[in-house]
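User: quick one, fold this
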Amino acid sequence: MKRIPHHLSWYILVTMVVFLSGCSAVIVEDNLQPEQIPAAISRAGDELATEKRFLQTGVIYQWAVSAEANSEFSSPEWSAEQAVGKPDSPGCGDYQFSWASAASDSIDTLIVRFPELVYPLEIIIHESFNSDQVTKVEVQDPERLGYYTVLQKNPIRVDRPCPYELIVPVEGIGFLTNTVRITVDQSQLGLGWNEIDAVQLIGTKGEE
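Assistant:
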């Protein structure tokens, strides 16, 4: 039997390690491909509506019941907990009733959790100041603990009044979730804090 040359053996070993590393990364965190991510919709000012977004029965509308962030401007004012519940900022402005990160020019994340696990249909982010610098929205698979991207975009300079709603349609998620992670990138436009007042998760329980 011919022996494999020493240098070729090392090449095969390194190749296998790289291949296995790539496989494990997919297990930790998986994303929808860009062509699978539906475009976000926005509403501002007088366009804000309170009607139900879906006409079919069995759709659950829920507000966050807990929240955490990698940074907060202060506590309890402007803390992550200010993103819990329905929107309560009195209008467009730097109000303490919304979450704001510690720095005004940083990249930060806000994680919000909801009372019921659902198959997500839509995520609505209510922004009360310097909209729309949200660059990524993800949902968590509670079994695998990985996050799946449902929106990824650049920060946008919005020449429209706020409060502002970023509506994120969700497609291609085959698991129940109650956790949403939102990333804001305030480092690019020089606008200052992008403050988030509330987050709504809309979904179904699936077949009973």
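User: anything notable?
Assistant: The helical segments are 6-28.
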